[in-house]
Design goal:
- This protein is α/β, with parallel strands linked by helices.
- It contains 14 helices and 16 strands.
- The longest helix has 19 residues.
- 38% of the residues lie in helices and 19% in strands.
- It starts with a strand and ends in a 5-residue tail after the last helix.
Length: 389
């Protein structure tokens, strides 16, 4: 592919340099493909613990070689506002002379400026992704029927004629584009989130695996189960997992839980800490994949998070809570799903998997042979700007 000027538009998200989300990794790998890449976003970013903070910089090139333009909001600079306008957006589009726009989400009011620009420059190609579904959007009547079905549907429709492909990052988010925003099915595809290729070797390096397992007292033949992320009311099933591990009779099965815990669940989590279950608290986000890389099995008993796709991408078998529209992480046998929020179901499934070396080995083989390629960002980035036939 010839080198192109690709402009990502992330006004609807927090573009935080170094984080492993879609915005950052697509820009990184589009740059690695030899393209000139810019991201237009706000001044709001996340700090290391996920808090929203202000980045003073207006324009710079990040360590991936991506030019970042940060715009001020019209009115007060408050990211919690539902409807945002940005100063200088059209001027930034004019300055960048894009061959390709990759738009992260349709939920921003300056879509009209983007459409006006595209009308004047009809050769530009446009791709749009969507990260919303009914687990995180349209959660009440006003949100569903007014904000999404009327307001954001309107902005989707005004850009729709100019879009090559709309992407949902999970099957449920593909459906959301069709059902809520009225995008024709033939214009929508799945574009999975995944893992940074550069992080895979580090996560699976034998010295990293040995270091983590030794630090937490794991014997070589212990079966290490790992779970992590923010433990809140949407992921309180982590406590069920701890109970299930504590009930297992196999002395070789061990669990490590990492991440922050909301105040309401701290007592319950502390009550399950034992020789078999360790809660190690918050870890640096840059080390997350190394912890998953040290595991024999990863369990996500609560709501979907981007960790699911990253763990598939490093070739680890998983047990995940079943959510309609998130089964794409199963690439042919690497995942087992939970259908009930009970200790009994978790215990039975763990007993079945861990009593059979063959079954766990099969899951591991599928994860390595199929999952690592399908959820690699070098592959995802190529797919993301592929024009339809």
């Amino acid at each position: 592919m010839n080198s192109k000027k690709i402009v990502h538009i992330s006004l609807n998200s927090l573009f935080t340099d170094g984080w492993s989300y879609q915005d950052q990794l697509l820009t990184k790998y589009h740059k690695k493909m030899g393209h000139e890449v810019t991201d237009i976003t706000s001044h709001w970013i996340n700090d290391d613990k996920g808090n929203v903070i202000w980045d003073e910089r207006c324009e710079y090139v990040n360590t991936d070689g991506v030019k970042v333009i940060r715009l001020n909001m019209k009115g007060r600079d408050d990211y919690s506002r539902k409807f945002l306008h940005f100063k200088g957006f059209y001027e930034a589009l004019e300055e960048e002379h894009a061959d390709i726009f990759f738009v992260h989400g349709v939920n921003f009011l300056d879509m009209t400026d983007l459409v006006n620009y595209i009308k004047k420059h009809p050769s530009v190609k446009v791709f749009v992704d969507n990260h919303g579904d009914f687990s995180n959007s349209g959660l009440n009547w006003i949100s569903k029927n007014i904000i999404h079905k009327i307001i954001w549907r309107h902005y989707t429709k005004i850009i729709m004629p100019y879009v090559n492909t709309f992407y949902g990052v999970t099957p449920s988010r593909v459906d959301f584009l069709v059902d809520m925003y009225g995008v024709p099915k033939e214009k929508v595809e799945l574009l999975v989130m995944g893992v940074d290729d550069d992080d895979v070797a580090t996560a699976l390096a034998p010295d990293s695996v040995d270091r983590i397992r030794k630090e937490y007292g794991m014997a070589q033949d212990d079966i290490l189960i790992m779970t992590g992320g923010k433990i809140d009311m949407a992921k309180r099933q982590t406590i069920n997992l701890m109970k299930a591990i504590n009930q297992t009779t196999n002395p070789k099965v061990k669990l490590i839980v990492f991440g922050s815990v909301v105040e309401e669940l701290k007592e319950a989590v502390d009550g399950q800490i034992s020789e078999k279950c360790q809660y190690i608290g918050w870890i640096d986000s840059k080390e997350t994949l190394q912890y998953y890389g040290a595991a024999d099995l990863v369990v996500f008993p609560g709501r979907h998070s981007v960790f699911w796709e990253q763990v598939v991408g490093i070739g680890k078998p998983m047990i995940c809570k079943y959510w309609e529209g998130t089964t794409h992480v199963d690439v042919g046998g690497n995942v087992r799903f939970l259908y009930k929020d009970t200790v009994e179901e978790l215990s039975a499934l763990l007993e079945k998997l861990l009593s059979s070396d063959e079954e766990l080995a099969h899951m591991q083989a599928v994860a390595r042979e199929k999952g690592m390629k399908a959820f690699s960002y070098s592959e995802i980035a190529k797919q993301s700007i592929k024009e339809r036939d």
